Amino acid sequence: MSNSVSKTSNNKPIYADKELQEELFTLNLGPTHPATHGVFQNVLQVDGERIVSGVSTIGYIHRAFEKIAERRAYYQITTLTDRLNYCSAPINNMGWHMTVEKLLDIELPKRVQYMRVIVMELSRIADHIICNGILGVDTGTFAGFIPMMIKREFIYEIFEEICGARLTTNIGRIGGFERDFNGVAFAKIRQFVKEFPAVLKEFEALLERNRIFIERTAGVAAVDAETALNYSWSGPILRATGIDYDVRANEPYSSYEEFDFEIPVGTNGDVYDRFLVRNHEMWQSLRIIEQALAKIEKEPKGIFHADVPDFYLPPKEQVYNNMEALIYHFKIVMGEIDAPKKELYHCVEGANGELGFYLISDGGRSPYRLHFRRPSFINYQMYAPMSSGMLLSDAIINMSSLNIIAGELDA
Amino acid sequence: MAKLSNERVVECLNKRFEGRFSQLEEAYGLLTIETNKEDILDVLELLKTDEELQFIYLTDITAVHYPELPKEFAVVYHLHSLVNNIRIRIKVFLEGTYPAIPTATVLWKGANWMERETYDFYGIQFVGHPDLRRILNMDDMEAFPMRKEHPLEDPNRVDKKDYFFGR
């Protein structure tokens, strides 16, 4: 069968006899296929090894977060955002905190903003490590993946030091952080900044000019900028097509405008370019973390939250000894404090693209409507159409390079 | 190039749609306009194709349910002009139990899943959509779960009544 498909042109198969084979094979890729790294199903019509058409079915881990959020107090929604993109949960947490702070008109001290930048860039690195590492694994090499994964574990250790959790972090609070970074946390961040470049350099040396890797990835699933914009792509995969759209630069939040960093862009929008863009972004993230560490040095020590008693929990010792603190504690925990009546859209640059929060408050204790603009959901819809004509093995690495996270896909 | 202002966007829209849209608010600098379902496609097309505005990027489509309003459903579009770095929010209020609105998939292919999601949760019919099926929920589900008539918790529960909490 497969020898009747000889060549491809623009990802469309050219059949030897100019006619479609009458019998196609239906292949269920997923829902729990080890190569898909998540719970998605694609029902593919394949002719030999070549995909003729496909239909994506999603929603296997849909948990109705938007509905649940309509009943919860604002501070309780942070735990829902953890479970969107669980590879970089802190970015989601921070995005949500910033949305609520925008709603409440809270201005954060500079030191807290820099601390947030550090946490967000660390989780961006963690997310890109998993994507590029897995891309290496899917193309056949475990060698690069393991040392990178060790560094990713180290990032999780930093998170553990900051908030006590590793994967679903629930890091930070509305108005700042729950506690200051301790000395160990700062020491570990510095150690990471010092040690990671060597590992990343080795990883790049292993793959970037590796002929097998290039032949496997270059030209695969190439997407031009116009199509990518038409499909509302965002994040590294959009930048790989040559569009320099990055929320951190376009609409700076959390003092990103003070940092000096570059936005890497690709030219072809293929799997290889996405790999390069993510690698370069890790270097830029390291740069940002270094600058943030230097900036924190200059700020007064010990400030880790804004002065918002209505929404930021008082210290526990005061709750037991001070009546006002007890009242605030009770009101916050029971979610008794109403938010102003407003409507807003806030977005942050997630590891996969523009992560947006569309929030409508009717003046009550919980949102009237909360909609997550989830980059994975919007990026993934092109997957089935762009797969037609591709080899099955190319479609697998295409999925790896899109970095679709099932939690973010289904919300 | 001077930054495009919200006033200029309204001016451009006024050239063709004078009186057929209204400006709702400008909270946080995000211009919000309301139009009707007859004009929405033309408004979106003008915003996308106008050489000065260039709202070429469809950020999001979603809906909101207001059971107490005569027009119960609002379909909300967020567009982004990457060149001018400015956003706009467009709302269309719809009436009826199963309201219909023209699809935006003719302008953006990316609107496909966004509209499917909106249909899935609110039951809004996007006329002309190539594949309007449920996306996150099961195909044989009958309700549209994000509508406000579906409470999140069992309404017969007595231990969580609001008066226990002074509300």
TrEMBL record, chain A:
InterPro entries the record matches: NADH_Q_OxRdtase_suD (IPR001135), NADH_UbQ_OxRdtase_49kDa_CS (IPR014029), NDH1_su_D/H (IPR022885), NiFe-Hase_large (IPR029014)
SUPFAM superfamilies given in the database record: HydB/Nqo4-like (SSF56762)
Keywords: Cell membrane, Membrane, NAD, Quinone, Translocase, Transport
Organism: Parapedobacter composti
Record family assignment: Belongs to the complex I 49 kDa subunit family.
Catalytic class of the enzyme: translocase
Catalytic activity: a quinone + NADH + 5 H(+)(in) = a quinol + NAD(+) + 4 H(+)(out)
Annotated protein name in UniProt: NADH-quinone oxidoreductase subunit D
UniProt subcellular location: Cell membrane
GO molecular function: NAD binding; NADH dehydrogenase (quinone) (non-electrogenic) activity; quinone binding
EC number(s) on file: 7.1.1.-
Quaternary structure, from the entry: NDH-1 is composed of 14 different subunits. Subunits NuoB, C, D, E, F, and G constitute the peripheral sector of the complex.
Tree of life domain: Bacteria
Gene: nuoD
UniProtKB/TrEMBL annotation, chain B:
Keyword tRNA-binding: no
EC number assigned by the record: 7.1.1.-
Highest taxon of source: Bacteria
GO MF annotations in UniProt: NADH dehydrogenase (quinone) (non-electrogenic) activity; NADH dehydrogenase (ubiquinone) activity; quinone binding
Keyword tags: Cell membrane, Membrane, NAD, Quinone, Translocase, Transport
Location relative to the cell: Cell membrane
Enzyme class: translocase
Gene Ontology annotations for the cellular component aspect, listed alphabetically: plasma membrane
Membrane association type: Peripheral membrane protein
Boundaries of every NADH:ubiquinone oxidoreductase 30kDa subunit domain copy: 34-154
Major localization class: membrane
Chemical reaction(s) catalysed: a quinone + NADH + 5 H(+)(in) = a quinol + NAD(+) + 4 H(+)(out)
Pfam families: Complex1_30kDa (PF00329)
Assembly notes: NDH-1 is composed of 14 different subunits. Subunits NuoB, C, D, E, F, and G constitute the peripheral sector of the complex.
Described purpose of this protein according to its UniProt entry: NDH-1 shuttles electrons from NADH, via FMN and iron-sulfur (Fe-S) centers, to quinones in the respiratory chain. The immediate electron acceptor for the enzyme in this species is believed to be a menaquinone. Couples the redox reaction to proton translocation (for every two electrons transferred, four hydrogen ions are translocated across the cytoplasmic membrane), and thus conserves the redox energy in a proton gradient.
Family per similarity comment: Belongs to the complex I 30 kDa subunit family.
NCBIfam families cross-referenced by the UniProt entry: NuoC_fam (TIGR01961)
Protein name: NADH-quinone oxidoreductase subunit C
Organism from which the protein derives: Parapedobacter composti
Gene that encodes the chain: nuoC
